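Dear U.,

For the methods section draft, I wanted the exact inputs and outputs in one place so we can describe them consistently. I've listed the two proteins in the order they'll appear in the manuscript figures. Please don't edit the token lines directly; just add comments below if something needs changing.

First protein:
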Amino acid sequence: MTCTDCTATREAPAWPMHNPACIYCGGRLIQKIGTYQIPQSEATTRRRAVLADWVAAGHDEKQIRALCKGPLAVEPIEKAKVEV
């Protein structure tokens, strides 16, 4: 199933919604937190909370971390397995 929030992000990169059922949305949210004008300690706390929420939703932590290190995390049009 295609993630509607990832589809919206392709059209409008500042799209504010993130679906916990989508691993790409979790990676993208963690990436976005780094762009907020907040202290580094708060950013780290928020990133950890998002990671914990997405792992609790059943996603693999290593895959999320790999997505965070790459370009803007958006579900590919032709879905491929996330490489770790």
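Second protein (the one for the lower panel):
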Amino acid sequence: MTSPERKIIPLGDQEFQPVIKYKDFAKSPAMIVKQTCLLIDLSLQGVTIPKSDMMKDYLQDYTLFYLRKAEKGVDTIYDRKEAVFKDLDLETKEAAHHAFIIFAHLPDNMTSRFLPNGFSRRGMLKAPVTKDEFLSKIEEIKIGLWQILDGKMQPQTTLEAYPRFLRTYGFFKVGSNLPMKMSEDEKKKEQIEREKFEDILKDIKISL
């Protein structure tokens, strides 16, 4: 049976996608997911984040930017007709593929102290198998993200009791831990972005 991951590989002349060179490295999917995961972790620990307006700006300008890109590029995953998505830019395609890879890895990489044997691939963290399921999951993440960071989830809450919040947190947690190949130049850019983010959170003693 075809694995979920194989669905992200284009066919024919589009089999190998060019290396993405982001105009703004801070808006690369991997960078956004890592930074957003940090914000969620802090919120769930009950940490009051300074410069909250800046945090909301980050979610609006970066996290939601990424999720909307993923929505826009959904047909590159579920529709193989080149005419459908030939006009999409590479960054949009990359966002959709990146999100799908995270969904595919969620069951195997999300851990829970209540589930020592892990999550079922057909359970609450199953990967989307249709376009509608993919879009529904992205929409759930957008809603869940704002609810968590607006304090709708009490610190130390058992996420397993709230599947939609578990899926939202799991998406960014698993995504932030996915191994990524980066050139030396990209590593330098990542360090710069981490330092910028650390400056925003400089009143909190954390390790990025």
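Candidate sentences for the figure legend, describing the second protein: Residues 191 and 197 are 10 Å apart (CA to CA). Residues 23-196 form one domain.

Thanks,
Y.
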